[in-house]
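haha ok so turns out i had the wrong file open the whole time. this is the CORRECT one, sorry everyone. sequence first:
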Amino acid sequence: MASSDAGTSSGSEYQVFLSFRGPDTRIGFTNVLYHSLRDAGIRVFLDDEELRVGETIAGSLKQAIDNSMIYIPVFSKTYASSKWCLCELRQIMANTLRSGGNKEILPIFYDVEPDDVKLKSSLYRDAILELESEKKLSNEQVDVCREALLEVGAIKGWEVKKYKG
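then structure:
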């Protein structure tokens, strides 16, 4: 894969980490975003582009998150129903807090409202409850996920429906 060395002098392997729910946005929105950023010379982590066959996904994702400077979560209808997406978001929030302002989150609300992410509607609330009832997340993990969603939901982001094209 072609990549840019821009930004690697800061010690970060990636400038941007994209967090998204594949079935919702991989083909189309996230693919276009990824290639647009890459074409602009930005080093972007995208799971299927960067993970090599045989690599441990959990470890590779954590390392990619830790080594990125900007996080772009693409919140979509089923983002909160994915244990992986929520784990990524928890790691993103932890890294951002630890960075002392050196890392940034730029949320995108794709086919959802910021209020969905802030748990003010049933969409994400129900998805998290489902993961908990299926024992995919512990009570403690659910609490951390809720907190992460509330925090990132409070960040001004882009609401895709407000833009044409």
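The chain has one domain: 12-158.
again sry for the mixup
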